[in-house]
Amino acid sequence: MLLCEVCFLIYFQHINGTSSIKELSEVELLQASLWSQTSSCWSERMMNFVRVNGTQLMLDGKPFYVNGWNSYWLMDQAVEDYSWPRVLEMFQIGENMGLSVCRSWAFNDGAYHALQVSLGRFNERVFKALDKVVVEARRHGIRLLLSLVNNLDAFGGKSQYVRWAWEEGISLTSSNDSFFFDPAIRSYFKVYLKTILTRKNHLTGIEYRDDPAIFAWELINEPACLSDATGDTLQDWLEEMAAYVKSIDKKHLLTVGFEGFYGPASPPERLSMNPSEFYGRTGADFIRNSKISNIDFTSVHIYPDQWLKKANFSEKMKYISKWVSIHIEDCDTELKKPVLFTEFGLSSDHKDYDPAKRHIFYKSIYDAVHNSAKNNGAGGGALIWQFLARGMEKYNDDFGIFPDSRQPMYELIKHQSCRIAEVNYKQDILKTPYKDICQKN
C-alpha cells in the first residue's frame, strides 16, 4: 500500500471517529485509495511558504499572484458530519477553477459551534474541524488566508471579548472599542493568538505556525475604532498584535484585514478618495497602518453598493476604478508592499441589480489585478466574496455565489485563474495542473 493511501486511511479514521482502519467501510477504503491516485495527499504534496519580496508575493523564488475566494464558513461546516461534504465540495470547486487561496474565519467566539467558548477556553471538537479544513485545503493545493477576529458582531467578534471581560469584572468599560485599548482584553486576545498559532493539527501533527497550507494570517476583519478618530488607538493595537504574532510565527505572512479607507495621517488627495467623510474617521488608515514593519502585505475591500448608495452603476464603476488604482499605486510607490483585494462584491438586493452588471464589475477588478501582475506590480490578487456550496441557501447574503460551470461568472473567475497562472508560471505552465484547467481558456 502506498504511503499516500495509508495517510488517507488514517485521515478517514479520524474524521469518521473509528478506532481502527478495519472499521472503515468498503466505500471509505475505496475513496481513500482513489483520492491517493487522483490527487496528491497532504503527506506527499510539497508546499512551501509564500514570502514577500518588495511589492511581490513570492513562491519558490518566483512571483506569486493570487486568484481566490472567500468561504468564511469552512470551520463551522466542518464540525458536523452532515455538513462536512460542503467543505469537500467547496475545495474541489476551487481546485477545478484554478483558485489558489481561500479566505476563511479561524475564529468563532461564543457563538454556535464556538471555537472559543469563553475567555481562554476552547472547544476541541471545533478545533479538530479546523484541523480537517487545513488538511483538505492542502490536499487540493489551496492555501488558506485565516482571519483571527471580527470587528463586526458575527461569530462573536470584538464585542464578545468585551462582554466576557465585563461579565468577569476584569474590564475597565463595556465600550466595544475597549477591545483595542483595555490591557486585560489585549492579554486575553494574545492567549487566543498563541493557542491558534501553536495548535498541533491532530491529523498531521504539524503546528499551524509550521504549516505552509496556511497562506497568511489576518489580524482582524474590517477593523474600526470609532472612539478614536485620530487612529492612535488602533495603530497601537495593530503594532502590538503584529509584533506578538511574529514573535511566535516567523514563517507566515501577516496582514491586517482592513477595507482600505484613508485616515487623518493620509494626504488630502487620498482622504478625498474615501466614499464619504465618515470613512476618514473610523480610526483606520490604509497608509499608516500598512507601514507597520510586521505587516507583510496589505488588503482592500470593495463594496460600491454599500458605500455609494445614491450613485448609479456608471458612477460606481468610475469610482471603483480609481479606488483600485490608487491602492495599487500606493503599494507600488510608497508602501512597497503587495496589496490583495480580499473582498469584493456587488449586491443582488440593490434595486438596479443585474447579473450582467455584476459580471462587468468583477471583470474590472480582475483586469486591474492582471494588468498589475503583467507589469510585476503590487496588485497581488483578488478574492471574491463569497462562494457557497449546495444546500447553504440560508448562509447566503446578497453577494453569495453558488459556483456552477454553466454560469458565465464561473468562466470569468476561471479565466482569471488562467491569466494569473500564465503570469506566475510563464512557459512552465504546461508542467502544472493549469495545463488541464486552462486548456479551454
UniProtKB/TrEMBL annotation:
<keyword id="KW-0326">Glycosidase</keyword>
<dbReference type="GO" id="GO:0016985">
    <property type="term" value="F:mannan endo-1,4-beta-mannosidase activity"/>
</dbReference>
<protein>
    <recommendedName>
        <fullName>mannan endo-1,4-beta-mannosidase</fullName>
        <ecNumber>3.2.1.78</ecNumber>
    </recommendedName>
</protein>
<dbReference type="GO" id="GO:0000272">
    <property type="term" value="P:polysaccharide catabolic process"/>
</dbReference>
<comment type="similarity">
    <text>Belongs to the glycosyl hydrolase 5 (cellulase A) family.</text>
</comment>
<dbReference type="Pfam" id="PF26410">
    <property type="entry name" value="GH5_mannosidase"/>
</dbReference>
<dbReference type="InterPro" id="IPR045053">
    <property type="entry name" value="MAN-like"/>
</dbReference>
<dbReference type="InterPro" id="IPR017853">
    <property type="entry name" value="GH"/>
</dbReference>
<dbReference type="InterPro" id="IPR001547">
    <property type="entry name" value="Glyco_hydro_5"/>
</dbReference>
<keyword id="KW-0378">Hydrolase</keyword>
<feature type="domain" description="Glycoside hydrolase family 5">
    <location>
        <begin position="48"/>
        <end position="388"/>
    </location>
</feature>
